[in-house]
């Protein structure tokens, strides 16, 4: 009876608000970290996390709890991050005012370590579409098919972005290390 | 921030390994974000689709504006073309020839049976054309087409084709183009050139889909088939 699926599952005692907030609470660190991994400046990450929560709540009733939550969240985060990037490109045409510091702000400093920072800095050299695929597949261990579904792109595109992104990442890493070792 | 790392080579896989585990964010930041989320639930800030219920301000009719601009440009071009043509008028031998053709000997009431093709009406939309020499160009067009109409009414279809061709050459997109093309279909049917008549009728329907002459034109080409 497929039509029954149109009716959202009702769990007695748990409202959508509570369930959504609970999921958000559980994955808050992941969401925040994902934005940083996608190259959002730390100063803006907080606002984008809030934006993600609004989107999540708006769509919560359509969300199927059987589906893994993180790829779903990642898909939302990716769209928000790319929108934000476009907006920044529009609003700040001058290089002088551009805030491109991807490093963690003062509040996150204590949790940073060199390897993480280095990776984020190298990832910054990879354009967002490929960066997202890399992060999702390599860091979150999301299978290629699910990456494709979450980002609404064909599977072959995922593969090609992975390959090219990986090349770009290696190159950026070599450049960074050379710069570090030069002086 | 990035310091020397000894001799150990660092590749992306090593870095991925480090970054895979999610570090907990600071508790102050966490508390602030959760607070904002709870606030959004209380104020139902997330309910955006409601906003669509408000009547949106009517969008500026860009399409219509663009259409008007195109129309104005086209009319300007046509006017310029007519001016050029008029400047060269002495060189055109055909127009006077057309004038001297059957006009005088054909009273307009003669062929009552023929459909109202050539009635040189000027529908309201024509007034949109800001042609400076509207009256004069209109008279010239009429002078060209009137013999064609008369010839069609007489059943002299072969003769009608000449003024029609001449009008098409000089006022391709003129204000009587609609009437001219209707006359053309009628004349072609009369001559038994049914294939051409059908094509002309199809072109007529394409160019003047809202023409009051369209039913008559379709009927003509259909009867000819």
Can you walk me through this structure?
- The complex is a heterodimer of chains A (183) and B (225).
- Chain A is an all-alpha fold and 183 residues long.
- Helix content of chain A is 66%, strand content 0%.
- Chain A is built from seven helices and no strands.
- In chain A, helix 4 crosses helix 7 (155-181) and helix 5 packs across helix 7.
- Helix content of chain B is 59%, strand content 0%.
- Chain B contains nine helices and no strands.
- Chain B has helices at 12-20, 27-42, 62-87, 94-100, 134-154, 157-170, 177-191, 194-207, 214-224.
- The longest helix of chain B has 26 residues, at 62-87.
- The model of chain B is unreliable at 1-8, 90-116 and 118-129 (pLDDT under 50).
- The chains are: A mainly alpha (183), B mainly alpha (225).
- Chains A and B meet through helix 1, helix 2, helix 4 and helix 7 of A and helix 1 and helix 2 of B.
Distance between the termini of chain A: 69 Å
- Fraction of residues in H or I helices of chain B: 55-70%
Q: How would you classify the helix and strand content of chain B by structural class? A: mainly alpha
Q: Largest sheet of chain A, described in full? A: none
Helix content of chain A: 55-70%
The helix-and-strand class of chain A reads mainly alpha
* Separation, N- and C-terminal Cα atoms of chain B: 87 Å
Strand count, sense and barrel status of the largest sheet of chain B are: none
Binned strand content of chain B: under 5%
Q: What value does the Rg of chain A take, in angstroms?
A: 18 Å
**Principal-axes shape call of chain A:** globular
> Which chains have the largest interface?
A-B, 46 and 35 residues
Order of helices and strands of chain A: HHHHHHH
User: What's the overall average pLDDT of chain A, rounded?
Assistant: 83
Spans of at least 5 consecutive residues with low confidence of chain B: 1-8, 90-116, 118-129
The number of helices of chain A is 7
Number of E-state strands of chain B: 0
- The overall pLDDT average of chain B reads 74
């Amino acid at each position: 009876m497929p039509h029954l699926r149109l009716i959202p599952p009702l769990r007695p005692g748990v409202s959508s608000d509570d369930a959504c907030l609970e999921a958000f609470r559980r994955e808050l660190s992941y969401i925040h970290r994902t934005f940083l991994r996608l190259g959002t400046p730390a100063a803006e990450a907080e606002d984008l996390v809030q934006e993600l929560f609004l989107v999540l709540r708006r769509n919560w009733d359509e969300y199927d709890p059987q589906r893994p939550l993180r790829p779903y969240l990642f898909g939302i985060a990716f769209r928000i991050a790319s929108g934000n990037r476009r907006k920044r490109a529009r609003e700040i045409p001058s290089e002088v005012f551009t805030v491109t510091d991807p490093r963690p702000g003062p509040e996150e400093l204590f949790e940073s370590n060199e390897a993480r920072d280095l990776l984020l800095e190298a990832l910054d050299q990879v354009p967002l579409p490929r960066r997202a695929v890399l992060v999702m597949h390599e860091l979150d261990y999301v299978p290629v098919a699910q990456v494709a579904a979450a980002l609404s792109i064909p599977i072959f595109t995922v593969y090609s972005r992975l390959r090219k992104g990986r090349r770009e990442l290696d190159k950026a890493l070599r450049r960074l290390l050379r710069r570090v070792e030069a002086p | 921030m990035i310091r020397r790392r000894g001799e150990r080579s660092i590749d992306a896989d090593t870095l991925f390994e480090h970054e895979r585990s999610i570090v907990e964010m600071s508790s102050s930041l966490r508390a602030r974000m959760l607070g904002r989320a709870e606030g959004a639930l209380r104020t139902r800030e997330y309910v955006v689709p409601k906003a669509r219920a408000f009547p949106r301000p009517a969008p500026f009719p860009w399409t219509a504006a663009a259409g008007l601009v195109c129309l104005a440009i086209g009319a300007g071009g046509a006017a310029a073309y007519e001016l050029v043509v008029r400047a060269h008028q002495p060189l055109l031998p055909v127009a006077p020839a057309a004038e001297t053709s059957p006009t005088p000997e054909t009273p307009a009431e003669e062929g009552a049976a023929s459909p109202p093709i050539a009635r040189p009406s000027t529908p309201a939309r024509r007034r949109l054309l800001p042609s400076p020499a509207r009256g004069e160009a209109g008279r010239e067009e009429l002078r060209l087409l009137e013999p064609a109409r008369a010839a069609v009414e007489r059943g002299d279809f072969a003769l009608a084709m000449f003024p029609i061709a001449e009008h098409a050459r000089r006022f391709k997109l003129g204000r009587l183009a609609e009437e001219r093309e209707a006359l053309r279909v009628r004349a072609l049917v009369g001559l038994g050139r049914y294939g051409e008549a059908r094509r002309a009728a199809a072109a007529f329907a394409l160019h003047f889909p809202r023409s009051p002459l369209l039913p008559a034109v379709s009927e003509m080409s259909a009867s000819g088939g």
